[in-house]
Amino acid sequence: MLFKLTEVTTDEEVGRLMEALYESYTHPYNGFWDMFKGQSDEEYIARYNEWRKLDPNVRWIYVTDTETDEVVGATQWNIYESNPFETDPPPLKAYWNEEGALYYPVIQWCGTKSAYRRRGIGMLMMKWGTERADQMGISSFVEATDLGEPLYRAAGFVTSHEFTFDASPDKPDEEWQSWRRKLQLPMHGFFMWRPIGGTWIKGETQFPWSAESSKA
Fold first, then answer.
1. Alpha carbons within 13 A on the beta-carbon side of 39
2. Quick check: 92 and 104 in contact, CB under 8 A?
3. CA dist list (Å): 136 to 38, 131, 132
4. pTM of the predicted model, to two decimals?
5. Distance between CA atoms of residues 134 and 136, nearest Å
6. Which of 15, 42, 102, 204 has the fewest CB within 10 Å, making it most exposed?
7. DSSP code for 26
């Protein structure tokens, strides 16, 4: 069985890869997906296509099974030519849901269909982005879930710190508490950084913010 990696260039491709991401984020369940999914498949596919076109930093890739042409994995890479962490991003109101405001850190999607895991698809998508980062001479960041952390670690990312992700509604009520339980909030995560080349030398390599602090 062979796999092919492709970069998204059309709206139709986004529709195909979203189905794969939906399956990957529900086996096992991950509340991140439901937070961003919205009210219908048509709406969220159109929204992600709009976001893709508006933000030149967004690069979607996906992997297909060459025998069946089935999309089996997809990843959103955000490739910046300047530091995106110099200022905090503003809170994002979840306008795609009927009510509520959710607040989030920067998130990139990465998923492989459950039946295709442990076949190198995730690492194939990691190499696509990390090779570009190395060519550009820049380091990489990712906010990982417990499930994704081993993949990112294998791709050269190291954990800076762990965090807890939660969300806040405008008006907390019992319905919100029900959603909170469904989404399995709060979620545990890892803020991970990959040095150029993916090599961490203990006692020598420093996180860039640690290096800046030592110069102050």
1. 7
2. yes
3. 35, 9, 6
4. 0.73
5. 5
6. 204
7. B
